[in-house]
Amino acid sequence: MKAARFYDREDIRIDEVPEPTVGPGEVGIDVAWCGICGTDLHEYKDGPVFCPTHSTPHPISGETAPVTLGHEFSGVVYALGDGVEDLRVGDHVVVEPYIIDDSVDTGPDSKDYHLSENMNFIGLAGRGGGLGEKISVKRRWVHAISQDLPLDQAALIEPLSVGYHAVERSGAKAGDVAVIGGAGPIGLLTAAVLKAIGCTVVVSELSPLRRQKALESGVADHALDPTQVDVAEEVRKLSSDGRGADVAFECTSVQVVLDTLMDALRPTGVLVVVSIWAQRSNFDIHKLVMKEIDLRGTIAYVNSHPATIELVESGKIDLAPFITGKIAVENLVDEGFDTLINRNETAVKILVSPSGQGL
């Protein structure tokens, strides 16, 4: 079968690889669609980061480069391993793409398995990936979805779960004013979750195309251009008592955005850092102290998929507006990565069909 494989920085190849064996307790999935994530772009430009090297295997998967990429994917069950009795061939599914040591409690009450030692992701550190035509995944990480939910939209469940967990970390509730720094894919999907729970959402974004997408998709009530207005002042005007936002989400890893969000928050507000920072921040700790701001980090998701899927299946979130392109796996680098690296304001989520079906 075809698969997009990471060999090294700026070295991704479309290989012919053996189809996976579906072992006991595993689910064989025909991949329908796989999204390109910002993490994939970082691996391509700056990696290996999450991906193993040729000489250093990942401690849990045991795999070295090359590895198949892709962790945002949906598909159809084609085989069930021994012991899997609660799914059927033909079921539509998405994957919570974790690689976690078997000793870790990943049960429904766990709130920290995603923070376990050596945690990594299917499609980055081994065990196949969504940029291959087929994959076999442990039953624990497979989530059934309604057949009424289009599989292309379902491929966005994984990044939407990132937004869901970030909102959960913030403690946001209906009636709150929330401000988001950056209307890239994660910023927009975080906004979608906030709107779904009844928040007033303000987005700060340089790109006019992304501001337009935030408004047209209905996930933002206001989209501000930080080069034209004082974002903090505008947010204070939009809050009922003029004191600022209740919660803020940093989705850019840009220092000026972090500073702006700090200014836009009311005293005792919550600032959640969603983006991955490759450099140290020059953060104004004094301002944090004087406003008693809660600064919180968030990474990925933890037991977030069921609630995220429910938001989509109930119609509270429409993922269709965020799909801005569909390509074949053979065009992953020249049409997918190149667009998202060099013209990222023109796209939100580009989906890849490993098999070519649906194009």
TrEMBL record:
One Pfam family recorded for the sequence: ADH_N
Keyword Metal-binding attributed: yes
Protein keywords: Metal-binding, Oxidoreductase, Zinc
Domain (Enoyl reductase (ER)) ranges: 8-352
One function term, GO molecular function aspect: zinc ion binding
SMART domains reported in the protein's UniProt record: PKS_ER
InterPro entries: ADH-like_C (IPR013149), ADH-like_N (IPR013154), ADH_Zn_CS (IPR002328), ER (IPR020843), GroES-like_sf (IPR011032), NAD(P)-bd_dom_sf (IPR036291)
Reported cofactor(s): Zn(2+)
Family according to the record: Belongs to the zinc-containing alcohol dehydrogenase family.
Name of the molecule in the record: 2,3-butanediol dehydrogenase
